[in-house]
Here is the input.
Amino acid sequence: MSRKILKSILNYLILLFIPAFICVFALKSDDAFAADWSFSPSATLSQTYDSNFRFTPTSIPGVSKGDFITSFSPVVSITGETEQTKFQFDTNTTAQAYFKNPDFDTINTNTTASLTEDWSQRFSTSANLGLIHDWTLEDQLQASGIVAQKVERYLYSGGLGGKYDLNESLSLTASGLFAKTIYPSGTLPDSDAYQGTITPIWALTERDNIGLSNSLSYTDYNNATTVKTITEMFYWQRILSETLNVKLSGGYYFTTVDYVIPTLEFIPIPPFIRIVNRPFTTNDTAPVFGVDLNKDWSERFSTTLSAGSQQYSDVNARSFDSTFISCTGQYKLSERTTVNLIVRYNMNNQISQGSEKIDYYIINPSIERSLTENFSVRLSGSYENESDKNYGGVAGTNLNYDRFRTWVDLIYKWPRFFASH
Here is the structure.
C-alpha cells in the first residue's frame, strides 16, 4: 500500500469522529441515554471507465488520459432522537484505485454531524460540523460546471441556525456558516469563508409561503484576494396540487472583489526595476433568480426542473456570474427497476480579473435494479462537454473539454440496527 494511501487513512481516522464526539458531548447526559438510537450502514462497490479522468482539454492533442477506476464506498448513518433533541451523524468514505495511474489512488470522505434542539413549540436551534477530503475537480464541476485542477482538498465547516415562530403565519430563520479550505500541495489558494443569512417567512395560506432572504458572504483567499457579496432575494412557494409544487425567487446580488496584480515599478535612484503587488477593486451588480418545479405525472413517473443565477467564487479565487438549468426524470419500469435521467447546463461569465466565458453541460442516464430487499445493481453513464472562451483572460484563447464515463455500482444496504421505531 502506498504512503499516500496510508497518510489518507491516518488523516481520516484522526478527523472522522471529531464532529460526532463534539455533538454527542453537547447532548445532555439524561437525553443521550433516553434517546432512541439507530445505526444504518451500507456499502457500494463500483467499477468505472473514465475517458478523461483529469478533464483536461481535448482540443490539445495528447493531454487527456483515460483510466479504469475501482471504488469501494462504505456509508454509516447514526441517529439519536428524543422528543426535543435529534442527533445525526453521517459518514461516506470512498477508496479509489486507478488501474493505469496509481499516483491518483486516494481515500475520500464526507463526514457531517448535526444537533437539533426544540426548546419550545416556537423556538428551535441547530448546530453542525463537517469534514470533507476530496479532489477539487469533481466538486467544482457539480457546483458550477467550471473546470479545476485535480488537486487534493480538505474542507472543514461549522454552522449554527435557529428558527422562531412569531405567530401562526410569521416565522424568522437565521443561520451562520464558517468553512476553511486547505490544499496540502499549495497549488491552489487556501481560503476562509463566512456566510450569514436571515429570512422572514410568511405563510399566506396552507399552500402559499413567501419569504425574503438576506445573505452576506465573505471569502478570504491567502493570495490576497477577498470576495464580498450581499444577496437580497424574494421568493414565493406554492403547492398547486398533491402532485405539483413550484418555488419562484428573484433579486439582486452586489459583489466587491479586492485583489492584487504584480506590476513592474521603475526606481530612478539607483535605477532598477522591481515587481510590486498593486491592489485593485472591482464591483458588480446583477440579478439573481431561482425556479424549482416538481411534478408527479403518475405513480411511476416524476420530474424536477430547476434553474437559477447567482454569484460564484471558484477555487482559483475568481468571481463569476453563474447561471444553470437542470432537469431530472425518474420512471419506474416495475417495482424493482427504475430509470433515471439528469441533464444540466451551466453558463459562467467572469466578473473580475478577466473575461472568461465558460459553458458546460452533462447528460447522465442510469438504470437501477433491486435484486433483493437489501441488494441492488445500478448501471450509469455520462457525457460532459465544456467550452472555455478567453481562457486566462486572453482574448481568442479557447479550450474545449469533453469526456465519457460509464460505471456499474453494486449496492448493499443493511437493515437499521438497534432501532426501536
